Amino acid sequence: MRFMQRIARRRIADLERQLQDVQQTLGELRIIDTQISDHFRRNGITETHFPEDTQP
Description:
The protein has one helix and no strands. It is mainly alpha-helical. The protein is elongated. The N and C termini lie far apart (41 Å). The longest helix is centred in the middle third of the chain and has 41 residues, at 2-42.
C-alpha cells in the first residue's frame, strides 16, 4: 500500500506541474489573441471567424 501511495503522490505532483504549465501557456495564448484582436480593431480590420473557432 505504501508503494502504491508513493506512486500516486508522484503522479499527482507530475500532473499538478503539467497543469501549471498548461495554465501558463493558455494565459500567454489569450494575451496574444487579445493583442491580435486589438491590432485588427485599431486598423479597421474585421476579424474572420472560422468553424474551428467555436467551442462545442
